[in-house]
Amino acid sequence: MPQLKICFVASTIGQGGAEQQLYYILKVLRSLGANCHLICFTQGEYWEEPIKKLGVQVIFMEEKNKLLRLLKIMLFIRKHKFDIIQSVHFQTQ
Fold it and tell me: What CA dihedral angle connects 75, 80, 86 and 90, to 10 degrees?
């Protein structure tokens, strides 16, 4: 698993249930040695610091223009060549 590069995309990392599940998923993956990144559309929310303390790189894409945000996400993903890309929320767009 140490070679596995995983990128999660979340619209928020507030105090919701999906966000808590994301934290636990990241915690297990990091304990197994996976290289995890998180793209998030908001900054300064509840799970930000706990996720960073796991050693997960958190990238903020706070662009309001959805098309421009999508382009930035695509460029980031292309640059880092992830093995897995996982959306955390249904409404992530």
Answer: -20
Q: Which of 78, 14, 18 has the alpha carbon at shortest distance from 47? A: 14
Residue 36, strand partner residues: 6
Amino acid at 53: K
In a domain, 92, yes or no: no
DSSP 76: H
CATH code of the domain covering residue 30 = 3.40.50.1100
Domain that holds residue 35: 5-87
Q: What tens digit of pLDDT does each residue of 13-71 get?
A: 999 899 999 999 999 999 999 999 999 998 999 999 999 999 999 999 988 898 999 99
Long-range CB pairs of 24-27 (<8 Å, 24+ gap) are 26/51, 26/54, 26/56, 27/54
